[in-house]
Each structure stands twice: as C-alpha cells, then as structure tokens.
Amino acid sequence: MKISLFGYGKTTRAMAENLAKEFGPFDIYDDCFTKIAKDAFGNTLLNPKNFDRNLSQLEIPSPGFPPQHKLIQEAKNLQSEYDFFYDAMPKSVWISGTNGKTTTTQMATHLLASIGAIMGGNVGTPLAELNPYARLWVLETSSFTLHYTHTAKPEIYALLPLSADHLSWHGSFENYVEDKLSVLKRMNECDVAILPKIYAKTPTKARIISYEDEKDLAHNFDIDTQKISFKSPFLLDAIMALAIEKILLDTLSYELLNSFIMEPNKLEEIKDKKNRLWVNDTKATNISAVIAALKFYKDKKIHLIIGGDDKGVEFDNLFDFMKGLDIELYVIGISAEKILNYAKRVNLKAYKCEILSKAVSEISNRLKANEVALLSPACASLDQFSSYLERGKVFKECVNKI
Q1: Exposed/middle/buried for 341, CB within 10 Å: 0-12, 13-18, 19+?
Q2: What is the pLDDT of residue 314?
Q3: What one-character-per-residue DSSP string does 56-68 give?
Q4: Nearest to 6 by CA among 71, 103, 101
C-alpha cells in the first residue's frame, strides 16, 4: 500500500521513523521541502505540488495540518493517526477540552500507572511510539485529531469545558465544538462519556455522565474535594482524573493524586534577584486559560504579558473580565495592534513591547514587591517562537538576567 504523510511534524515523523520497514517507504509532503529527497529511513520527501492522488492509497496528516490546505482538498483516502492505529490500539481513555487536557491526562496516567497505563497523543508521545501491548492508552486528544478521525473511538471519553480556540483552523466555534463531540456517534453502550452538561443531549449510545462544574462532577463520583491538595484552575483536572479512576477501578486514590508534580509552564512561579514574583503561564494560549490565571492572582496588581498568534479569536470576554482588575498590559506578537485596540476600548493601560525580552524589561522597571508579573499570553507562540515551551524558556531566561 502506498501511504502518503502530510506534514513533517512529530506525529508523521514518528511514523516515518518507526514504520517505514513495515509499511513504507512513505511519501512525505511538506511545504518546507523544495526538492525531492530521501530521509535516513528511505522515505521520499516531496513538495505538495508533487502529490498525485491517483498514486496514493492512503493519506495521513499531521494532526494540526490545516483542512484548507490543497493536499487535504485533493486527498481521496484521508485517515487520522488514531484511525490508522485503531486495530492495534488497546483499551483507551481520550481526554479533550479547551484547557486542562495535558494536566488531566498526566494525572489520570499517574493514578492508573499501577495497571500498566501509558499516555500519549497530543501530550507528547505519538501513537507510533506507544506500546500496543500496554493495558491502557490514556490519550490527550486535540480537536485537530478529532477532525480527521472517523473510525476510532475510546472506552472512556472525558471532555473538559469548551471555549473559543483555534477558530482560524476550524472556521467557527460551532465547527470546533462539532469536532470535539464527533467521537460520541461512534461510541457504544459499554462506553462512558463525561461531558459538560450543555452537551449532555448529544446523540450517542454511550453512557453519559454530565456535570455543571467542579462541585457537580465531584458529587457525581462521590469525590471529597477536601482531600485534594490541588486548587483551581487545576481542581477540575484532578477531579476528572479521579472520576476516570473510579470508572475503571472503583477506587479514589487521593494520596497518590496529591503526590503528582505539576509540569512547568502552567502558573509556574519564579522569583527574580529582588525577590519579586514572576509567573510563567506560557501554555495559556486561549482566553479561558488566561481568565483562570487572572482569577488566581486577582488580589494583586498584575503586569500581564499578552499577545502572539490570536488564532482568529476575539477578546471581548477577556477584556470585559480585566476591567475589574488592577492590571497593566505588555503586548507582544503579531496580534499586538488588535490587543491594543481592545485595551483602548475599555481604558486599560497597555504598552506595545513587540518582543518578549522588551516586555520583561518594561515590567522590571515598574514591578513592586507585592505585585505579580504574569506571562499568560492568550495566544499561540508560533509567530515568534518554535513552541510555547520555547516562549516559556525565553521568559525565564529574561527574568534570570534581571
């Protein structure tokens, strides 16, 4: 079978490296390839203009590969990574939502490690690198992956709340929600879907457990929140992880959950040489994540670094929320003018910094001991950085130089 891979990201690269002998060589199409070449595994690297759909029997895109791309439009046999590995996939839990997917996936895997659970998907390990003989896959599942998936389904689907994100990719919030809920039509009577109450009537054969908020979800699973050491915005993630454990094992391992160590880049507090508080929340790439961070520090004056690639999202709700805070904005990235216009509209003080290092420098000149400097950008990073991780790394390097 002649398989074409679209994009040379982490997902398709893992397939090219691990499966070339079994299924390959692959034809790999990416806009960055200007001439035909071979990689170390014998796969052919091609520019999209070389794609001939009549010579391709299967096309697998990188999850974030845009649906508007001409390769997607021309493909006749499009299949997601999840669909491709579905026959070899063990029992699985898929975790999705707008915020908290990674933390919930990590927490759930931490709770289920004793039964041989491993995690992958959007959390960092492509399916091509996961052990198919593991007892359980816990997969952080993006809206991009769900958009291209039409066959695979999990035994448990845990959906965290949804808010506007990736609208330039999906075309609208309605399309984004539709992709997040699309898996439900493939689930059966033995499966379980945990959903925000607003989506509880989505047609599915699965057993639906719906929730209004953290308290409601905890009540549904007899979870004692007083025994959980994590607070908002991570409390819902912790409750969801315990709910998944309760479904699978009928246990609630509070002590094990509380031993979980949060990864960097989410409300990661650091101090400069003057003992002033700086917070690396670089992973807050959408409005709801930023609002959660601002709520956490609402009792302090906040110096907020905001901006990057806005992904087609409007900021009305965020700026309506910020009107009630003691806050100043330091704006970076390609969305700077858009954000500055919002700030002017609601009379918030904002400084155009353009780049992260300048924003840190500007804040350092104003930051007092009882205030907080917060990188919570509400935007993707790819306009200026290779990833949100690099943005966080640069932020911490700048703070350490103060």
Answers
A1: exposed
A2: 94
A3: -SEEEE-TT--TT
A4: 71
CB 243 within 8 A of CB 194: yes
Tell me what pLDDT residue 188 has. 98
How high is the pLDDT of residue 234?
95
For residue 25, give the DSSP letter.
Answer: P
Each residue of 249-259: pLDDT tens digit? 999 999 999 99
Amino acid at 106: Q
Secondary structure (H, E, C), 282-345: CCCCCHHHHHHHHHHCCCCCEEEEEECECCCCCCHHHHHHHCCCCEEEEEECCCHHHHHHHHHH
Mean pLDDT to the nearest integer, 96-118:
97
Closest CA to 285 of 311, 262, 317: 311
**Separation of alpha carbons 46 and 34, rounded Å:** 7
3-state SS class at 390:
helix
Note the helical H segments in 53-183.
70-74, 81-85, 101-112, 143-148, 167-170, 173-181
Mean pLDDT of the chain: 96
Name the token pair of 139: 């997969």
Instruction: Give pLDDT tens digits for 382-391.
Output: 999 999 999 9
Main-chain dihedrals φ then ψ at residue 105, nearest 5 degrees = -60, -45
Pair 123, 10: CB distance under 8 Å? no
